[in-house]
Amino acid sequence: QRVVLMDPSEDPDNVLRANRSREKTFVFDMVFDHRATQEEVYVSTTKSLIEGVISGYNATIFAYGPTGTGKTYTMLGTDCEPGIYVRTLEDLFKALEATAEEMDYTVSMSYLEIYNEVIRDLLNPSSGFLDLREDSRGSIQIAGITEVSTTNAQEIMQLLTQGNKQRTQEPTAANKTSSRSHTVLQVTVTQKSRRQAIGEEMRIGKLFMVDLAGSERAAQTQNQGKRMKEGAHINHSLLALGNCINALSEKGGSRAHFVNFRDSKLTRLLKDSLGGNSRTVMIAHISPASTSFEESRMTLVYAYRAKNIKTQVKCNLRNVDQYTSIIADLRREIEHLKERV
């Protein structure tokens, strides 16, 4: 559970720096080295969230860290070593099928990317840039996003593969297949009991799986022109995310901290995931290379702070009275007939 970060520039013979060791120790719920398999990472981080999603709770998993440390590999994986997306969805459908006798369920998904601070729908890229809106209940919605209803994990995987081909990726000096955007896969599970009742309750659980673009230094990626602008946008949204994590982790301290979720589209979309009604897992990625010492240190500091964030999780239940719509229709008809009389 411990990560020990050693300073590569430390010289044991340097008398002036003898007592200024920058060796830092961080403690986390779980730490994986290079030998860890995709299955191990999935079981330790995400598997326990599935039961909650089915019971009507929200959950979020996001991959965080500098460029080239393996975030997309953890989330998407390869054909022979599938990542968290695939494993979570397979287990989700297995768990839903086990309750199929008592419950009716529907699963819908949307897949989007935030590129240069604009939102693109990866399932329907021709729809152009989309806007974030707030609904009457105060939750953030994306106007015009494609929501696809599916009945098995294979369908979702085909849609994911298709969506991922539309994702913006470009080579940089630091990473051959650098993701230039943040992607968010949102899976909504709606369940209601098969036993018809008048005041029937519907459970709605949302699962967000976020693959962030990597933070990067222009000197390291040797970016110029368009790539440089992309990097600036990526760093801007990650800085906004870092500021939110800082403010949330210090909440409940001596002074109240304002949490600025509106600083970027990414933080606005993840508002509930970060400090609201959601069980959240952050998978922080670092590189063992000595050249990435500063990036690794910053990532570990942020992940360590994120541990202090407390979220309030409540079940999303909605009453579905099957007679409500019928009564509303009859009332409208009565009004209409009164006018005619």
UniProtKB/TrEMBL annotation:
Biological role stated in the UniProt entry: Plus end-directed microtubule-dependent motor protein that regulates the length of motile cilia by mediating depolymerization of microtubules at ciliary tips.
Protein name: Kinesin-like protein
An example Gene Ontology CC term for this record: microtubule
Binding site for ATP: 65-72
Pfam families from the UniProt entry: Kinesin
GO biological process: microtubule-based movement
Segments forming domain Kinesin motor: 1-309
SUPFAM superfamilies for this protein: P-loop containing nucleoside triphosphate hydrolases (SSF52540)
Family from the record: Belongs to the TRAFAC class myosin-kinesin ATPase superfamily. Kinesin family.
UniProt main location, coarse: other
PROSITE patterns registered for this protein in UniProt: KINESIN_MOTOR_1, KINESIN_MOTOR_2
GO MF annotation terms: ATP binding; microtubule binding; microtubule motor activity
Keywords: ATP-binding, Cell projection, Cilium, Coiled coil, Cytoplasm, Cytoskeleton, Microtubule, Motor protein, Nucleotide-binding
Subcellular location as annotated: Cell projection, Cilium; Cytoplasm, Cytoskeleton
